[in-house]
UniProtKB/TrEMBL annotation:
Record bears the keyword Metal-binding: yes
Entry similarity comment: Belongs to the glycosyl hydrolase 13 family.
Gene3D superfamilies (alphabetical): 2.40.30.140, Glycosidases, Golgi alpha-mannosidase II
Location of the Glycosyl hydrolase family 13 catalytic domain: 13-402
Keywords noted in UniProt: Carbohydrate metabolism, Glycosidase, Hydrolase, Metal-binding
Species of provenance: Mollisia scopiformis
Cofactor: Ca(2+)
Xref: Pfam families: Alpha-amylase
Protein name: Thermostable alpha-amylase
InterPro entries according to UniProt: A-amylase_thermo (IPR013776), GH (IPR017853), GH13_cat_dom (IPR006047), Glyco_hydro_b (IPR013780)
Length: 511
C-alpha cells in the first residue's frame, strides 16, 4: 500500500491534572493556567482536568467542599465572588485560550454532596456505625442539621431549585447537641442509604462520604443535577468530565447523566471517575456496568509504583501485575500522582521521588492506557511542605517524547528484575521511534532491536542523563544504557523535534 493510501497514525494524547491541593490562595489560578496553556500544548498536553470551578464553602475552598453548582465565580456568596481559582470571567477566558491552542478542558464534577448550608433544618435521623453504615447505633430522634440551601447571592438565576433536609440521605453534625456523628436521615418512607449495589459496598454501604450527602433517589435532585450538566456544557466549552467520589453516589444516576450528555451534545465526551480502590474486580465490574463508556483512574498501578519505590531491588517486571491498564487498557487512565496522593495530604499512596521518572516513563512511553500528568510534578508543590518539580525537571521531556516518538510496534525486554527496557519502532508517518531503558539498581544496559530501517542512525538520550551515542547496527540492534537508579530515552539524534526539548519554564508563579 502506498504511503498516500495509508491512514495517518493517531496522535498520542496526554491529559494533565491542572492543579495541586496547595496552589496559593490568591484567586489567580485561572489566569496562570491561561498564560501557560501554550507551553503545555508545546510539551504534548492535550487535555486539562481543571479543579472544581463551582463555589465552595469559603473563598479558600478547593471545591470539593462544594456549595453551589451554578456559581462558577459569579455571585457574592460564601465570602467572595470568585472561587479560590478565580472568577467566572477568568474561567471563560482560560477555556477560550485553551480551545484556541487545541487543549481540551475536563470539568471536575463534585456531585456527591453539598457543604456550608445557609440555614439549619430539623429532621428525624439515626446515628450509624462509621465502620458499618448499615448498623444503627441509636433510636430515631430529631436533629437540627445544616441542610437548608437557599443560594441567596444567586437567587433563582440558572436554577430555581433550593435544597432541604429531604434532599439528603445523611449528614455529620447535629447542632442541637453539638455532636459529630454519621446520621442517616429518615423520612416519610424511611429513605435510608442508596440501595445496595448502587454505591460501593465498603463499610457496609458507602453512600455517605462527607458533609450533606445528596439523595439521588429524589426526583428533584436528579432533575436539578442533570439540568446543571446541560447548562454547564452551554456555558463552558468542555471535552469531558472527571467525576469525584463515584464510589459514594448512585451508579444508576451517573449512567443516566452520561447518557443525557451524549444524547444532548453528541457522543465523544470523555468521562473518567475517581474510584480510589485497589480492588481490580470491583473496578472492572464498575466499567462493565457503565457500558465501557467510561474510564477509571488506575489506582492499583499507583499502589504498585508506591510499593516498588519503597522496596529495595523491587522486581520491575511485575510493575503492571494486577493493574487496571493490564486488563482494561482502553478504559484505564494511568497516573503517578494526583491531589489525593501527594505528600502531607491524603497519603493514599505516596511514591518516593527517585521512582517518579521511572513511573512516568512507564505510563507515557508505552502503548497502553491514557496517561495523566500531575501539575505538582510539573510545577512543584506549594504550601507548608513545598516540593520542587519532580523527575529532576525532566517530566516535560518525557511528555514531549511521548508526543513525538512513542509510536508503533512495542517490543518489551522485561528480562531482568532491576533493569527493563522496551522499544517503540515507529510507523510509516511517525517513523523515528524510541528505545527506553530504566533501572532501580545499578547502571543498566539492554541490547534491543529497533529495526533494520534504523540501521546506521546515531541515537542519543533526549533526557541528557546518559551521555554518548548508540549507532544502530545493520541488524537493527543497539546497545542502550542508562544510569543507575534512573532511565534513558534514546531517539535518533537527527529526529524531527529534537530542537523542542529543554524549553519548558516550570516557574509558573514567577517567584
Amino acid at each position: 500500500m502506498a504511503e498516500s493510501e495509508q491512514k495517518p497514525t493517531p496522535e498520542n494524547m496526554t491529559m494533565m491534572q491542572a492543579f495541586e491541593w496547595y496552589v496559593p490562595d490568591d484567586h489567580k489560578h485561572w489566569t496562570r493556567l491561561h498564560d501557560n496553556v501554550p507551553q503545555l500544548k508545546a510539551i504534548g498536553i492535550d487535555n486539562m482536568w481543571i479543579p472544581p470551578g463551582c463555589k465552595a464553602s469559603s473563598p479558600s475552598g478547593n471545591g470539593y467542599d462544594i456549595y453551589d453548582l451554578y456559581d462558577l465565580g459569579e455571585f457574592d456568596q460564601k465570602g467572595s465572588k470568585g472561587t479560590k481559582w478565580g472568577t467566572r470571567e477568568e474561567l471563560v477566558t482560560l477555556v477560550k485560550k485553551a480551545n484556541e491552542v487545541g487543549v481540551g478542558i475536563y470539568w471536575d464534577a463534585v456531585l456527591n454532596h453539598k457543604a456550608a448550608a445557609d440555614h439549619k433544618e430539623k429532621c428525624e435521623a439515626q446515628e450509624v456505625d462509621p465502620d458499618n453504615r448499615n448498623k444503627t447505633t441509636s433510636d430515631p430522634y430529631e436533629i437540627d442539621a445544616w441542610l437548608g440551601f437557599d443560594f441567596p447571592g444567586r437567587g433563582e438565576k440558572y436554577s430555581e431549585q433550593k435544597y432541604h433536609w429531604y434532599h439528603f440521605t445523611g449528614t455529620d453534625y447535629n447542632a442541637e447537641n453539638n455532636k459529630s456523628a454519621i446520621y442517616k436521615i429518615l423520612g416519610d418512607k424511611t429513605k435510608g442509604w442508596a440501595k445496595a449495589g448502587d454505591v460501593d459496598g465498603e463499610k457496609g454501604n458507602y453512600d455517605y462520604l462527607m458533609f450533606a450527602d445528596l439523595d439521588y433517589e429524589h426526583p428533584e435532585v436528579k432533575a436539578d443535577v442533570i439540568a446543571w450538566g446541560k447548562w454547564l456544557s452551554k456555558e463552558v466549552t468542555l471535552k469531558g468530565i472527571r467525576f469525584d467520589a463515584i464510589k459514594h453516589f448512585s451508579e444508576d444516576f451517573l449512567r443516566e447523566f452520561i447518557t443525557t450528555m451524549d444524547e444532548e451534545y453528541g457522543a465523544g465526551w470523555f468521562f473518567v471517575g475517581e474510584f480510589w480502590k485497589d480492588s481490580l474486580d470491583d473496578m472492572s465490574r464498575y466499567l462493565e456496568r457503565m457500558g465501557k463508556k467510561f474510564s477509571l483512574f488506575d489506582a492499583p498501578l499507583v499502589y504498585n509504583f508506591s510499593q516498588m519505590s519503597k522496596t529495595e531491588g523491587a522486581d520491575l517486571r511485575k510493575v503492571f501485575d494486577d493493574s487496571l491498564v493490564q486488563i482494561e487498557p482502553v478504559n484505564a487512565v494511568t497516573l503517578v500522582m494526583n491531589h489525593d496522593t501527594q505528600p502531607y495530604q491524603a497519603l493514599e499512596a505516596p511514591i518516593e521521588p527517585f521512582f517518579k521518572p521511572l513511573a512516568y516513563a512507564l505510563i507515557l512511553l508505552r502503548n497502553q492506557g491514557y496517561p495523566c500528568v500531575f501539575y505538582g510534578d510539573l510545577y512543584g508543590i506549594k504550601g507548608e511542605h513545598p516540593f520542587p518539580p519532580a523527575c529532576g525537571g525532566a517530566l516535560p521531556a518525557l511528555t514531549l517524547a511521548r508526543k513525538l516518538y512513542a509510536y508503533g510496534e512495542q517490543d518489551d525486554y522485561f528480562d531482568f528484575a532491576t533493569c527493563i527496557g522496551w522499544v517503540r519502532k515507529g510507523t510509516w508517518d511517525r517513523r523515528f521511534g524510541c528505545a527506553v531503558v530504566l533501572s532501580n539498581a545499578g547502571p543498566g544496559e539492554k541490547r534491543m532491536h529497533v529495526g533494520e530501517m534504523h540501521a546506521g542512525e546515531k541515537w542519543t538520550d533526549v533526557l541528557g542523563w546518559e551521555q554518548g551515542e548508540v549507532e544502530i547496527g545493520e541488524d537493527g540492534f543497539g546497545a542502550f544504557t542508562c544510569p543507575g537508579v534512573s532511565l534513558s530515552v534514546w531517539v535518533n539524534k537527527d529526529a524531527e523535534g529534537r530542537d523542542q526539548f529543554g524549553k519548558f519554564d516550570s516557574d509558573i508563579y514567577k517567584s
